[in-house]
Amino acid sequence: MMMYQERVATMCQWFDQWDVSGQMVALFKMVTRMHPTQARFLSIALESSLTECAELALREQEANNPGYIENLLNEPKDRAIEELLLHLPLLRPGNKEAKHKYMGVMPVLLNHCMDNNLYLDKVLQLLVYTLIHPALKEDRATFDLWRKSLEEKIKILNLGANPAVSSTEATDPAQGKVRRSNSLTPPFTVTPSNELWTSQDDLSVVRRSPCRRLSLSLSEGPPLSPQSSQASSGSGSETHLDDLRPGYEAVGMKDVRHWLKSLRLHKYSWLFSQLTYAQMLNLTEETFDATVEFVGTGTVTQGAQRKILLSISKLRDRYANLCHLEQEITEGSGRNLLSAMDEVKAVILTP
Q1: Which residues constitute the signal peptide according to the record (predicted)?
Q2: pLDDT digits 0-9 by tens, 302-326
Q3: How far apart (Å, rounded) are the C-alpha atoms in residues 280 and 273?
């Protein structure tokens, strides 16, 4: 009995040292290992303890109000990302209208934060919620690509990207420590926790045994690009690592050369031959020079750099644009269907 109490005390100490992301993942993994009866009892106990929390009730009402969520785009970006972190966990499964608003707001904020290297610790926390939230089950594959993109961005920044971004706040999810550089010389440092993501026993793994455990699939949902659907082939229950291998045979990179040729940028195909799909999507003005130096094969003119970055930003905006296009069509805003089909065809032809 004493040994059990000591172990529980140790686990509590570890738990208190983790940040919100680490705590959420740990709790989720433990709860999904419980028998359904135990899990239901835990749910009843938690619901009973929260009945007197008026603030939580108000926040849950806001979280399921489509108008409130849509209005977040009118808020300053730092406040908007904070509000998302507070409200997304309270989205009720089945609330399709509110979910649709979340799916319109989140890509905009994620793009802004990742393009400008802002609030990356909060972006990671948000992605944790998207990967385990039952209301977003059909979209997990897309958000998993966002998570991989974030990790690849961090890797590139740590190789020695523009040091001016080193003053951005950064968090190590495993330790929960926030670091701020007082100098412009050290590289940007955000270290995603390997404990959160890389294990085969982690969130991306599905073990379907409903009589013994409660489990959620994290490999479902539409891919970000046509080629990235290869990552979900096979058993459908494992985390595939092919999309992290650089080169034109990697997942998502198959059509990059054709895409570059259509943009008259094929002379710079050497730059993309050493990148993964996630690294390509995360190229920004701040990381471009460091990436070129890392590949170390040639040089890129300023004009070509601007054109490459503009084209990549359009790739990142595809999801938000398609959501907006869908909304225009379903709401009958007078959008010409032929022009809409042309836009969809143009997206299909991109990598």
Answers
A1: none
A2: 888 899 999 888 888 888 888 888 8
A3: 10
The class that CATH gives domain 255-349 is mainly alpha
What are the residue ranges spanned by the domains of the chain?
Answer: 53-159, 255-349
- Token code pair at residue 316: 């990142």
- In angstroms, the Cα distances linking 6 to 13, 65, 183, 190, 263 are 11, 45, 43, 33, 63
Q: Which of 12-16, 163-167, 257-261 has the lowest mean pLDDT?
A: 163-167
What Rg do the C-alpha atoms of the chain give, in angstroms? 22
Q: Can you give the chain as a three-state secondary structure string?
A: CHHHHHHHHHHHHHHHHCCHHHHHHHHHHHHCCCCHHHHHHHHHHHHHHCCCCHHHHHHHHHHCCHHHHHHHHHCCHHHHHHHHHHHHHHCCCCCHHHHHHHHHHHHHHHHHHHHCCCCHHHHHHHHHHHHHCHHHHHHHHHHHHHHHHHHHHHHHHHCCCCHHHHHCCEEECCCCEEECCCCCCCCCCCCCCHHHHCCCCCCCCCCCCCCCCCCCCCCCCCCCCCHHHHHHCCCCCCCCCHHHCCCCCCCCCCCHHHHHHHCCCHHHHHHHCCCCHHHHHCCCHHHHHHHHHHHCCCCCCHHHHHHHHHHHHHHHCHHHHHHHHHHHHHCCCCCCHHHHHHHHHHHHCCC
Nearest to 78 by CA among 115, 37, 122, 35: 122
